[in-house]
Specification:
Blueprint (H helix, E strand, L loop, with lengths): L4 H23 L3 E6 L16 E3 L4 E9 L2 E9 L1 E4 L5 E3 L14 H12 L5 H10 L6
Parallel strand pairs: 1-4
Antiparallel strand pairs: 2-5, 3-4, 5-6
């Protein structure tokens, strides 16, 4: 069975709409903010050696979808960013723990999926349905 060009475009448009709806729903999840400070031993300008650093803006922000027992939340990680008075050095706190680089789901979320699948014998499609009811649609 071969699909016509119009049918393929229609399917792709529907897929894009579905992805957009999922992004919108995830944006409605409660947000927990966690700040990551630059470690003390890294609070030294690499250009001039000064330890007089001041904050540079709000910091670098990244988000993960995380499973907190009994509900799902978005964690907003705010990594402290410092700049030296000499202007030649910017230091940023290390990133939060990741299962894979650039992943949007945190370690607890991954663990919950694996435990539900392997220990609770819950198929992935039923996990996806449960998360969708909770307001966190996933593919």
């Amino acid at each position: 069975m071969s699909l016509s060009v119009g049918e393929k475009e229609e399917m792709e448009a529907e897929r894009q709409k579905s992805r957009e709806r999922s992004r919108e729903k995830r944006a409605e999840l409660p947000v927990m903010e966690k700040k990551i400070p630059v470690p003390e031993e890294e609070r030294v300008c690499t250009a001039c050696g000064s330890t007089t650093l001041r904050p540079l803006g709000e910091g670098e922000i990244s988000e993960q979808i995380e499973f907190v027992p009994a509900h799902t939340v978005r964690i907003r990680w705010i990594r402290e960013k410092l700049v030296c008075g000499c202007g030649d050095c910017v230091i940023t706190a290390p990133p939060p723990p990741q299962v894979r680089e650039g992943g949007q789901y945190g370690p607890g979320f991954h663990a919950e999926v694996v435990v539900s699948k392997c220990m609770n014998v819950m198929p992935l499609y039923r996990q996806a349905q449960a998360l969708k009811r909770e307001g966190c649609p996933v593919a």
